[in-house]
Amino acid sequence: QVQLVESGGGWVQPGGSLRLSCVASGSIFSINVMGWYRQTPGQQRELVATITSGGRTNYADSVKGRFTVSRDNAKNTVYLQMNSLKPEDTAGYYCNAELYYYSGSGLRRYDAWGQGTQVTVSS
């Protein structure tokens, strides 16, 4: 009933930039927090950045000053602008949304995840 679809990943050289997008679709009533997490093989998924519906942001220390999270509430879309990329930023990036959606029995809270998009930073 709810789907998150990411786009924008790929390969980039160190120092380069990429912009990720994530669109939420389905029977959505409201989205509280949207954000980005990343994961490398054998490691736990870690927070990159989040943004509330009111625009309050939170960043991992490792990306502060380089990454910018933003959202378009009207389009249920969250973005991640990544600048000055480093090889250690290489990971699968996953979109997350804490939302309420319409179910057959009323509104239900749901923690939705996208399928992930790969970001590779190397020379």
Task: Give your account of this protein's structure.
A hairpin with a 6-residue loop joins strand 4 (28-39) and strand 5 (46-52). The protein starts with a strand and ends with a strand. It has strands at residues 2-7, 10-12, 18-26, 28-39, 46-52, 57-59, 67-72, 77-82, 91-103, 106-113, 117-121. The strands form two sheets. Strands 2, 4, 5, 6, 9, 10 and 11 form a seven-stranded mixed beta sheet that branches. With 123 residues, it is an all-beta fold.
Summarize the structure.
With 123 residues, the chain is mainly β.
Q: How is this fold's topology laid out?
A:
Elements (H helix, E strand, L loop, with lengths): L1 E6 L2 E3 L5 E9 L1 E12 L6 E7 L4 E3 L7 E6 L4 E6 L8 E13 L2 E8 L3 E5 L2
Parallel strand pairs: 2-11
Antiparallel strand pairs: 1-3, 3-8, 4-5, 4-9, 5-6, 7-8, 9-10, 9-11
Radius of gyration from the CA trace?
A: 15 Å
Q: What string gives the helices and strands in order?
A: EEEEEEEEEEE
Separation, N- and C-terminal Cα atoms: 41 Å
- The number of distinct helices, counting runs of at least 4 residues, comes to 0
Poorly predicted ranges:
none
Mean pLDDT: 97
